[in-house]
Amino acid sequence: MKLLFDFLPIAIFFAVYHLTGDIISATAILIPATVIQLGVVWWRQRRIEKMLLITSIIVIASAGATIAFRDPAFIQWKPTVINALFGVAFLFSPLFGGQTLAQRMMGKAVSLPAAVWRRLNLAWVLFFFAMAILNVFVFTHYDEATWVDFKLFGMLGLTLLFVVGQALFLARHMSRSTPEEPS
Fold it and tell me: What is the reported pTM?
């Protein structure tokens, strides 16, 4: 459910784009949608996660630049910048505190050996960098409408598939790491 809530501003962007055919109008609505999303998160949790805050700042900055310069390139580069930053954060996270970012995020809920945490973290690194590259490929090789569709359906779909794959990976390793019951 959280993942779907995270994609809500993108869904609103998508709807406005397809209603108006204008990426500037769709981008203009993205700013208040993002601010409202932050407000709802703050109201419900009394805190905002760092990743959401960083993403929101990048969204607002790139959307603002898109509107100010009337150039969709800023908003089209946004997913690449965000995914690359997350890839870098996951990649270098063990250098700061010894644990991978994956372990810091899920370690309270899941107990895994260090090698499995490293593989899981590496998978996230590769996923984020692949998504960054894929976004550039789509917006440089296809028309604007195709990129907008990819932004919602392609990125959301690939993210959901990746999360399901990670859940299967975790389930496999969690069943191995749980003690066996006596016969």
Answer: 0.85
